Amino acid sequence: MNLLTLQAAIGKTALVADPRGAMRFRVTIQDVKQSYGNTRYLVEPVSGDGRRWVDARNVEIEEG
Questions:
Q1: N- or C-end of the chain: fewer Cβ atoms within 10 A?
Q2: Domain map (residue ranges) of the chain
Q3: What's domain 3-61's architecture?
Q4: Contact 46/28 with Cβ under 8 angstroms?
């Protein structure tokens, strides 16, 4: 992924799976980075509070 592709995700809504995959919840992407070749998103829940960096493989960005 290039920088423009990564930046385009900021502000979008996405679904994040918990580590066990038993539950998914809606989040807003606040920031994005690459760490050791892995893309990570800083997300916060649409409802509730808190922020967390999550691996891109656990994030499904909603289009539209």
A1: C
A2: 3-61
A3: Roll (2.30)
A4: yes
pTM value is 0.88
Long-range contacts from 12-16, C-beta under 8 angstroms, 24+ separation: 12/61, 12/62, 13/46, 13/61, 13/62, 14/41, 14/43, 14/59, 14/60, 14/61, 14/62, 15/59, 15/60, 15/62, 16/43, 16/54, 16/58, 16/59, 16/60
Bridge pairing between strands 59-61 and 52-55: unpaired
Mean pLDDT of 8-21: 90
